[in-house]
Amino acid sequence: MNVRATHSADASTVEDALAADNQNAVIDSKSATEVAMSNTLLTPRFYTTDFDEMDAIDVTPVRADWDKLIAAMKSDPNKGHFKKNEDWDDVDWDGMEPKLKAEFIDFLISSCTAEFSGCVLYKEMKRRGSNEDITTLFQLMARDEARHAGFINDALREAGIAVNLGFLTQQKKYTYFRPKFIYYATYLSEKIGYARYITIYRHLEAHPEHRFHPIFKWFREWCNDEFSHGEAFALLMKTDPKLTQSWSNKLWIKFFLTAVYGTMYVRDHQRPEFHKALGVDPDWYAHSVFEKTSEISKQVFPLTLDIDHPRWQPTLERLNRASVQVALAKKQGGVGGMLKRIGGMTKAALAFASLYTIPAIKHDVPVSTRMEPAY
Ligand SMILES: [Fe+2]
Ligand SMILES: [Fe+2]
């Protein structure tokens, strides 16, 4: 008999996780859903792709590693983990400093949207596919992301906020990416997600006085899920050496690395109070996350960005200033605002080009990609 899960954490499939009671928000928070709906360069997007092309992937070249990874994901060590238990402390939302509260809520909404974006893409791949290897993987990954999103929604609900995931699925704009771009972007977002969560987790382990919300206690198991998802994309890319070895694809890889790192830097610098409360310097945090992500991505990418190059840090700062200018100009509106906005966008494009043209560091890629979380 199939018993319906009442909490997404206990569900075995993505369908059950999405139908669980905690996903059906009692409170439909309009403003939170609006934030999640917004599509700018800095907000998480929803993606669609050529599902038939992805369904045609043959994992034979990586079969041994593939089967091990799938078996580990099927064994489901994190089942039941992503829900409140006795480790969950009371959160004093009303007593929270208003700026911190606003930034933290923004962080939670954007994280929830990003988790759910993965869920929607993976679930759709599972639904459309007929290749058992591929549909099995995507079902497992969608299950995890639905649990992650459900847990963030639990945290938000305590603040009287919920993101309407059903509404997002139907109404949010979908961006089309061809499969290889999905591999590069999703691989990186899974691995950088791992690096972000584990860096915060380890920092708070050493400085528990900065743990201003209980959700951070869950970050270690959380990031292990993201790590496995990244492993899966590394294997998918390994099935076709052209994806990572051809001259033009190397340029694309460099592009995605630069875009993902640059976006993270700018997005995090919009939340100064959040980082202050965590006791984290956002520049230190960015560098530490980039270092980990670069180290991990050597498993499949033949190049990494030179994040110690003298031009790297000052240009990131320039990109950030340009992005602040664009945001302020948008608020200002009118002709003056539009001109400032164009100016800001030009500066941002130039800064991005400058980051992109820093010579990359080349290296050999190992035959087998498989890694275990090591941080
Ligand atoms: Fe996730
Ligand atoms: Fe993930």
Please give the order of strands in the largest beta sheet. Answer: 1-2
Termini, distance in Å? 41 Å
Mean residue pLDDT: 92
**Anisotropy-based shape:** globular
The ligands bound in this entry are: fe (ii) ion
Q: What would you note in describing this structure?
A:
- This protein is an all-alpha fold.
- The protein has a domain at 1-176.
- Helices cover 64% and strands 3% of the residues.
- It has helices at residues 14-19, 30-37, 51-55, 63-75, 98-128, 132-158, 165-171, 179-206, 219-238, 242-245, 247-269, 272-278, 282-297, 312-332, 334-356; strands at residues 46-48, 174-176, 303-304, 361-362.
- The strands form two sheets. The protein has a two-stranded parallel ribbon with strand order 1-2. It has a two-stranded antiparallel ribbon with strand order 3-4.
- The longest helix is centred in the N-terminal third of the chain and has 31 residues, at 98-128.
- The radius of gyration is 20 Å and the shape is globular.
- The relative contact order is 0.12.
